[in-house]
Records
---
Amino acid sequence: MTTNLTDDEGAFLVRIARRSIEEYLTKRVKIKPPIETPESLKVKRGVFVTLNSFIEGAKELRGCIGFPYPTHPLVEATIESAIEAAVGDPRFPPVTLKEMDSIVVEVSVLTKPELIVVSNPKELPKAIKIGIDGLIVERGFYKGLLLPQVPVEWNWDEEEFLSNACMKAGLTPDSWLLKDTRVYRFQAEIFEEEEPRGRIKRRILR
């Protein structure tokens, strides 16, 4: 995957994500993109913001929401996703301002999803690279997305990744083998805090 963002641009997004959450939790307002936002971050890109509780060096998911497709300028999508990851993820209660002292912020900037075309669904695992690809599974009204870092964190192989993406969509684990199921792949540039409010680094999965 070609690198599109610099480390400074990635760090800018992580800082704006944290600031968006803390301003919203304090004042219940959504901040506007700063005037110093680089032009590269005004291009429409898909993005996800992930919040992880960080306790004694261990991370545990606390919220994750984003835009799979490039429908909004990247900086605006990051602000929106950060707030929603904090207060709108239905899997978790809303994050509190005090909690932000023990949460690390992660921003994943996505490439445009690409439909994986194979002659037989059984060939799908060979078309996926763990540590590189994220997945979107669609079947009818059902849709599920897993970021590239997820199978690495859970030590899944390609078939397990596909099965879990299906379950994320509300489907049975083997739905990726069905004819009308569509599987898309995408890549991500990932930037994260090393610790709450700490140094921001580019995350390398492989």
Note: The helical segments are 7-27, 74-87, 149-154, 158-168.
---
Amino acid sequence: MKSTRTRRMAKGQPCLIRLPRCTGGGDDTVLCHYRLSGYSGTGLKPPDCMGAFGCMSCHSVVDGRSPIPEGYTRETVRLAHAEGCLRTQALIQGEVAA
């Protein structure tokens, strides 16, 4: 997998997805790509601008490796991920603090 500036930048950042069981981020933070029809699919990863800085716990939930937290639905997890993408873009562009 190609390492980009945004992917390298993720390490050490706070988690911006913020689901229950979130570790807060830091050394385990990675860029978590948001799956969107037309931009992702089998063998096709979305562009990095569609990614959120996320800890391994949140990343596992949004990727479907861990169960959805109690009180959440697949849709609310996707919303938290999408909001994390927006927070990440704002952080990268220097618009707001995490």
Note: Residues 5-92 form a domain with the Erythroid Transcription Factor GATA-1; Chain A fold (CATH 3.30.50.20).
---
Amino acid sequence: MNIMQYPSQDYVAEKTHKNLLVLHYTAGGTLGGAIASLGIRDYVNVHYMVDRDGGVYQFFPEEYWAYHTGTGLRDAKRSIGIEFVCWGHLKRKWNALYAWPNNWKTIIPWPQVIRLKKFRGFQYWHKLTPEQEEIAPILVDDICSRWPGMQVCTHADLKTTKLDFPPDYPAIRDLTTL
């Protein structure tokens, strides 16, 4: 697995022990857009991002931390975050599906959509690409190999107001251990 370094200064350079890996989606469709959002100097960041083509980018070393859980300092310090470039939850209007950024105006083509059991009011989700699905378990296993006792969860598992990812989301559900 090739991990491309994309150095960021938006993290806290304090070494902490990790025992939680949190899986997120970007709620956007491009790597560039996600990098721009995470580039805002606010200490909200993730360690890794997986692009639609399966490329893996690392923003800062695993032993350091940034806010990404929305559940407070303790979880931020003990966790590693991975973002998948993906629109996430979608809203159906007539026979089209829309992503929520820009007031539900971005249309997502049906072949890129998966329908799941209703989760927190949503039933349609943007699919991960085959390349993302292929690299996800490799990246998760690689990270877990460096941190004994690491648990894996989704952002939605950790915080009840989050939607990333629903419990039955293919390629993600088999990675979680919580």
Note: The chain has a mean pLDDT of 95.
